[in-house]
Every structure is written in C-alpha cells, then in structure tokens.
Please model this.
Amino acid sequence: MSGRKPSEINYIDSGCQLHPRCLECPEERCAEEEDPLSRACTLRKARVEQRQEELQVKELRRTVKEMLRRWYVMKMVGQGATSAEVARALGISKARVDQIRQGL
Model:
C-alpha cells in the first residue's frame, strides 16, 4: 500500500463483462478474480440472463405494437373509416383490420 487514503487514489471503475461498474456490481465475488472455469460459468450465466432479458423486451415491444395497432383500428372505425381505409393508413392488410374489428 502507498499509505494514501482511498479518496486520494485515482480509481477508474471500468467494470467487466458482467456489470458496467465494479462498485455497483451485485455479485458477491469479482468474476475477474475467479479461476478461469468458474469465471467462464459466471460469464455464460450472465449472457444467458442478458439474452432472456432481450427476449422479454422484444416480446413486450411486440405486445405494445399490437395494442397500438388495435387502438388505431378502433379509433378509425369509430370515426367511420372503412377497413380498406384503415389498412391503407396503418400499412396493414384489410384482412388484419377485419380480424381486429371482429374482436371488438
């Protein structure tokens, strides 16, 4: 040790593949300090969790997009638009508009 206080040390918190900041990492042990096999397992687990989160976000976006589409169809139909007009305006098929209308 240099005898300096922690506040006097210029520390760059660059994180690792698991977490962007070391000081905020939720892991009990640092993956950078683990043996190679254990570290590989930890990184693989992190990649799997990240992929699961990405899939959840993708599904959520798909759900929101469908909800918005249904809302616009209902709004336009309520204003008296035909299925063909709604389909043209939203860039979807007339059959899809009819399908949504049947579900109303």
Summary: DSSP finds three helices and no strands in the chain. The chain has a mean pLDDT of 85. Helices lie at 36-78, 83-90, 94-102.
